[in-house]
Amino acid sequence: MTIAARKQREKEEMRQLILDAARRIFMEKGFAGASMRTIAEAIQYSAGTLYLYFKDKDEIFHALHEEGFVKMLEYMAPLAHVADPFERLKAMGHVYIDFARKNPDYYDLMFIMRAPMKCMEHEKWEEGDRTLGILKSVIRECQAAGRFPGKDVDGLAFTIWAGVHGIAALYVRNRVQAFEGVDPETLVDAGQRNFIEMLERA
């Protein structure tokens, strides 16, 4: 390995170390309670070191969002081979909720945790935009095949996202415990089935 290649690898490893620590800090303290100093302390480096990689905590938060969306898109990738667009759409809902189940910290940070608008507008959300674009594209394919006649794509995409997000968010934040005596996993599975039945009637 060349010196340049080794330095690049070390830089990437350090960047990932910062992101992993920041994700834990954001989950423990929330966005407002996190700072460059607390993140630096978690990895036993000076705050000045962090500024060599990120200009502020907003940029770190944005990077974690993008990291989460990359992981979500990896979950979605196999669905590209599902020929029927409506079957693909239903499978996307299952995969979305599965991602939330297996990556609750990422999901909370991406879709639930409150952050100021200056952070949310920090940079273009390329991977997030790509994920939403895939959903809208599949809806258009469904319409071309005769599904959802006359429905506005943006409005329908929002409704579908809101539906699966509601199930995922209630699970991630342990709100399904309100249903006493019902296994959370069973409840989530039932919720998915009911939502799909509503889509089939749309």
UniProtKB/TrEMBL annotation:
Gene3D superfamilies with a match to the protein in the record: Tetracycline Repressor, domain 2
Pfam family, one: TetR_N
Keyword set includes DNA-binding: yes
InterPro entries linked to this entry: Homeodomain-like_sf, HTH-type_TetR-like_transc_reg, HTH_TetR, MT1864/Rv1816-like_C, Tet_transcr_reg_TetR-rel_C_sf
The HTH tetR-type domain, residue ranges: 12-72
Domain of life: Bacteria
Keywords, in A-Z order: DNA-binding, Transcription, Transcription regulation
DNA-binding region as annotated in the record: 35-54
Protein name: TetR/AcrR family transcriptional regulator
Source species taxonomy: Bacteria, Pseudomonadati, Bacteroidota, Chitinophagia, Chitinophagales
